[in-house]
Amino acid sequence: MPGAHTHDLITVVTGVALAPLTFSTNLALGIDTQLALQQTVIVVGAHLLSGIMFSPDLDLDSAIDNRWGIFYWIWRPYMWVVPHRSRWLSHGLVFPPLLRLFYFFWMVVGVLIGAAWLFGRIGITLPNFHLVVSAAVLGVVTRHPREVWSFLVGFVTGSAAHSVADWLVTGGKRYLRRFGFVVRFNADNHDHWRGYSRRRARY
Ligand SMILES: [Zn+2]
After folding, report:
1. CA of 173 to the centre of ligand 1 (A)
2. Based on the structure, what is the number of domains in the chain?
3. How far lies 57's CA from each of 1, 69, 133, in Å?
4. Which range among 6-20, 93-107, 125-139, 187-201 shows the weakest confidence by mean pLDDT?
5. Which three-class secondary structure state does DSSP give residue 6?
6. What are phi and psi of 54, to 5 degrees?
7. Most exposed: 7, 18, 144, 191, by fewest CB within 10 Å?
8. Rounded mean pLDDT of 94-98?
9. What whole-number distance in Å separates Cα of residue 12 and Cα of residue 81?
10. What is the mean pLDDT of the chain?
11. How far is the CA of 92 from the centre of ligand 1 (A)?
């Protein structure tokens, strides 16, 4: 499987390639130029966000959760529970990226509820931030369905570019081995990969 930087490069290259494709598809659907441009920016932006920040490799002790800085722990439960390269939960085409988005939303809501509870214990009443966030997300979904769809499309393609690259490398190595070529290139150690069982034993 390619390392984190190779995946970043793949994300950027596929994101750039996606721009003319999205733009022309929007035009073909009868959308005016200005709006088509907006949708293209949303799709490419979501593609980059998904590939770089919400990468499928958040399922392991990777360089990816470091990108979240002090909020890296948001991804720890996901990392503990999801087996590395699970086709259903991290390295699949459509469901896993949507699951990560859903997970992220509920973690944010959970943290806001937890913070309100903690402050409540010391007598400080916080506004219901979790309701504010939920209402804001719901408002965007209901008022801007086209933009939300574009975002979801880009979010799915950003993750799919990663998963397909992983499958191609693994499949390609296996295929070459069948013909007697042993591929010496081995990126198994990329971003500290230790394998699921060993990783679990460590925590
Ligand atoms: Zn991967």
Report:
1. 15
2. 1
3. 10, 16, 27
4. 187-201
5. helix
6. -110, 35
7. 144
8. 97
9. 29
10. 88
11. 10
109 Cα: distance to centroid of ligand 1 (angstroms): 27
What is the 162 CA–ligand 1 centroid distance (Å)? 6
Domain that holds residue 47: 4-202
What's the confidence (pLDDT) of residue 144?
97
84 compared with 182, residue with greater pLDDT: 84
Q: Which residue do the tokens 């209402």 mark? A: 135
CA of 180 to the centre of ligand 1 (A): 26
Distance from C-alpha of 130 to C-alpha of 128, rounded to nearest angstrom: 5
Q: Are 9 and 51 in contact (CB under 8 A)?
A: no
Per residue in 14-68, pLDDT tens? Answer: 999 999 999 999 999 999 999 999 999 999 999 999 999 999 999 987 789 899 9
